Structure formats: structure tokens, C-alpha cells
DNA sequence: TTGTATGCGTTATCAG
DNA sequence: CTGATAACGCATACAA
């Protein structure tokens, strides 16, 4: 490995001088500067960023904790977060928690030990307390984990409202609401709050279906919707709190030759970009993923730079009408 | 930040001793060991991994270069690679090249500067030469980039053969082959070689469609298949070299009320796990992604440890018959 | 304009 | 069993 020392010797100067041309610091004669630059080229020298980080107490690494990169929505987030982080000179350490609390905690101390400059939590399963003693800039997505920890979210209540009212406007008389595990304190639960709010206001019949399933759990969804169709043949509208739930529902419906949207109308949440390759295109609530990711990166970097930030960051959502309503 | 020095002072020993209990080296009286451990707890001390890495010349970081994590197939790879790397004590630095040659090269030097221990290339757009001077363990996926650089692949020729013969067995008389850009020297191109091999052997009419499109490029695919259906109304079989191509084709077909598989049979390549939420389930060639990722991690770690490895690593594939044939 | 000395947090070597 | 000390590669304060 070639170090600053090698460059210095070969250029006939000291490491200080090399360091100076490297960092554009102080005054250097253009002659030595050129010489040094030339030697660096010759030796294909690149400064050791670990050593720099150690000295500067700054790694320029952001830890990104996600339950699962292979989840299409989180994969998109990872993509955009990497994109914006890279643009601003930061690297991403990828942490898949696999929704395993132990692994998430292990990663937390790992990130601390590795001196990342900050942490973006795309989601989490851990209790709030774990993060408090971390003394590290954090920003979360769709989750409040502490009084002073900033978060980025979108208007989940409005999303739920838009979806439900849309179904009612479409003439639905009995609406099923498919949601995930409501026990975790996610901001996304407001979608469900809004559903009940609207449905009661309009005195619409409704039914709640809890589906705490992994996105890849085909069998789980199959079983869930088998039961559903057996019990609720009169439902004519469905609001699902994720794109996956809507898609699995539609699939189950199509297998039963149920016409969508003629007989049942369906609204989902969060398109996955790749869904464009499948039919039908699902009416759903969109949150501005890219801007949210840009802000996540911005908020973490601002914290790193000790700049003031806003704690609550809520983006507007909108309903995109497509083929299922 | 609490350092080894703080622990030493508080425990009334020197840093050497603390380092010893930290690394279980040498003989220490159980009394001082306990004392030191206790102080470490009190201070919530975690050794600075940057400093350790600097000294040991080993970061335990693997650079993972992918064109795009949000691609479902690559997202799965990222997931498994993180999983196996984590199990073996390595961290993943996520590099999205976005199929941008400049960014890929920038990342290459960045990884070098940051002293990653090795690089896994999930794919790439760069010329071979760029990697040669890197002096860093590398392993690639589905691509040969140098005489001595190991790679992991699956039997692409066999995959192409299986797919094509399956269509023929299903009675197809004119088969379209949808492939990507063949100019890049990817091992995946063997799928196409096999297609032509089989189709000629059986004297089957065929047509080649090149689709060098981004996986999210709905419009591009729409246009492509508009042209296709205008020109080739007599095709009754399709072999696509990716799941996405097959799915977009099927979608275009369904929009035209073409019965699949009755009128046209379709075989794809590489399921995405999330496709289980959509209909129809596409007949396709499966490669053992998880094992391939495990091996990628294994090969990079073996190189890091200077252990001998096998350069060519080819996994078998199989055809999974589902609803489109 | 350039060089010397010191420290970042850690581990290893060598004494004691 | 424990402690000075040097070194990892780099950057800064202070001299010259």
C-alpha cells in the first residue's frame, strides 16, 4: 500500500507538504505542488480515508437501517437515499434488520463502534429507549421514537381519508379495510384512523382485516383472503394500507373471477415502480418517496453539521386513480 | 466520546491492560479483568473500529456495487449478500452505480480509499481494465472481467435451452426471443446463444427482439410491444431473458385480450419473489439466488484471507412451470 | 514556503 | 501479570 510517506520521499519533501497539497492548505510553491501531484499520479496514491476519519473524527458514513432491502418500497428508499447521500459526499452502510430486534440492536452498536456520522432508520422494531443513549444523529421514517428525534413522514391521515372517500364516491356500500399490525406505534396507523373516521361519518358498513404478514408470504395472504371471501361476499370496496395487500387481494379476487373494479373497487398505498409491469394498475395513494429520501439525507447531514432542523416533516400525499376503481 | 484511555484511568490501569482484556490476550488477573469490564460497562465504552481498522489494516467492510438496488432481482441479491456478510462479521458499503460508468469508477476509487477489504460486483458497465490496477479482492456476478478474477454465475446456456425446448414441447411453432443489449459481454448472453441453438436444431421459426430498456421504463416497453404485435401476429411462444421482459410482454398481451397461455406461451427468467402477488404466475428459469450470494460472500472472504478459491463457479438452473405455458 | 513534533484511538513489542 | 513506547496513516500547531 502506498502512503503519504512514500509520496513525500519520492517527491523529496516531507509528509506535511504532501498533506498540504492534498488539502489545499497554506502556501506552497507551484513547483513543489506540481512535483507532488506528479508523484501522486505516478504512485497512484490515494489518501487513506480511515486514517483521515480517525483524525477528523468524521467518517462521512451514514448507517441506513432497513427491515429488508428486498422489499420494493424500501429498495426504492435505499436507492434514493444512496443517491442523495452520494451527491453530498456520504457513503451508506447498509443494515438489514430483517425485522429482528436483536439484529437491529446489534447493528446499532456496530454503527456506533464504526463511528458512522449518523443513522437513517427506514423503519424499526426496537423500543424507543435503545436509541436514546446513542448520542448519534438520527432521523427516522414514518416513526416517532423520541422527543428530540426528527422524522420524515407523509400525511397518513389524509391518505386514509382520500382513499376511503374515493371508494365512497365510487358508490361502495360496504368497505373492507386491510391493514397490518396496528400494535406497533407507526405513523402509518393513521391511515386506519382516517378510514374509521370517514366510514363512520358517512355511516358506511365496514369490516377490518388485520394482515400482519411478510410481503413475500403468498400462502399467508392466500389463506387470509380465502377466509375473507367466505365470510364477506357483500363487500364492494377495499382500502389496503399497502400496495402489496391490495395486490394480493386483487390476485385472490381474480382467481375467483371477481370483476375488479366492476364488482369490487380497490385502493392501495405506495406504488412500487416495478408494478408498472403488471395488470391491473392499482388506484393508490402516493407519497413523494424521492423527496422524502432527499429530506432524510438532508436532515441527517444538517444534524451532523450542528445546523438547526425541523423535527416534524410531513409531506402531502395524493390519490392516483387507475384501473381498480 | 469515551476512549480506551478513559477506561484505563478510571480503572486505574494502563491502556495496554484495557486492550488486553478487550482482546483476550495475555495473562490478566481476574481481579483487574473484572474491574476493567465493570468500568467499560459503566462508561458504555465501545472500541473505535476505525482506529482498530487503521492499525490492523483491515476494515471488515465489503463494497457492494450494483447498478440499482431498487431492481427487484438486485434488491434480493443485496439482501442475501448483506445477510451472509453480516453472519461472517463483515459490513456492506452500498454502491449504486446507476449504470453510470463515471459513478462506477468513482465508487471504485472511493472503495479503495476507504480501505474496504474486498468488492462484490453485482454487475457493471465498466471496462475490464479499470479493475486490474485495483489490487483488491473482487468477485463478480455473471460477468468475466479478468483472467484471475473469480465469478459466480449460473448455467445460462442450459437456462436458455430449457426455456426454448419447453416452448417447443408445448407445441409452439414460431417463437419470439426478447433479450437485452447483447453488446455487453455478459454471461447472460448465453441464454440467447442457447435459444438460437435449439431453435435451429428443431427448425423452428423465430424472431429476435432487442429491448435495451430500464426495468421501470413502462413507456419503452409499451412502444416496443405495440410494434411487436403489429409485426408478428403469428408468434405463439415467447422466451424472455428476464422476468421483467416477460411480465411487460404479458401485460401488453392481456391489454390486447390475447389469451396466455392459450394463444401465446411465455417463459421468463429469474422470478422476483414479490411477483407472487401478481397474476399470472410466469413460467420461468430459476437460478439459486441465495446460494449464489452466499458463495459470492464466501469467495470474497476467502480471498481476503488469502485462501485458495475456484475461479469459475457455475450453479445449475431449473425451469419452473407455472401459468404461462 | 517548508519542516518538526504531536495526536487521533488502537494494538503489539519488549521490558520489568 | 502489567506498563512504557512505538506504530498504523494522516493533519494540524508551531517553528524556522
Summed up:
By secondary structure, chain A is α/β, with parallel strands linked by helices. Chain A contains twelve helices and twelve strands.
Main features:
DNA-binding; alpha/beta; elongated; 6-stranded parallel beta sheet; 325 residues; homodimer
Q: How does this structure look, described?
A:
- 2 copies of one chain form a homodimer.
- By secondary structure, chain A is an alpha/beta fold.
- Chain A has 12 helices and 12 strands.
- In chain A, strand 8 (237-240), helix 11 and strand 9 (265-269) form a beta-alpha-beta unit.
- The longest helix of chain A has 16 residues, at 72-87.
- The radius of gyration of chain A is 26 Å and the shape is elongated.
- The structure holds a DNA duplex (16 and 16 nucleotides).
Ordered list of secondary-structure elements with their pairings:
Two copies of one chain form a homodimer.
Chain A: H1 4-11, H2 15-23, H3 30-43, H4 49-56, E1 61-66, H5 72-87, E2 91-96, H6 101-113, E3 118-121, H7 129-132, E4 138-141, E5 151-154, H8 156-169, E6 174-179, H9 190-201, E7 205-210, H10 218-231, E8 237-240, H11 243-255, E9 265-269, E10 283-286, H12 289-304, E11 312-315, E12 318-320
Parallel strand pairs in A: 1-2, 1-3, 3-4, 4-5, 5-11, 6-7, 6-8, 8-9, 9-10
Antiparallel strand pairs in A: 10-12
Helix pairs in contact in A: 1-2, 1-3, 5-12, 8-9, 10-11
Chain A binds a DNA duplex (16 and 16 nucleotides) through helix 2 and helix 4.
Cα shape of chain A: elongated
Oligomer: homodimer
Largest interface: A-B, 59 and 59 residues
Helical content of chain A stands at 40-55%
The biggest beta sheet of chain A is recorded as: 6 strands, parallel
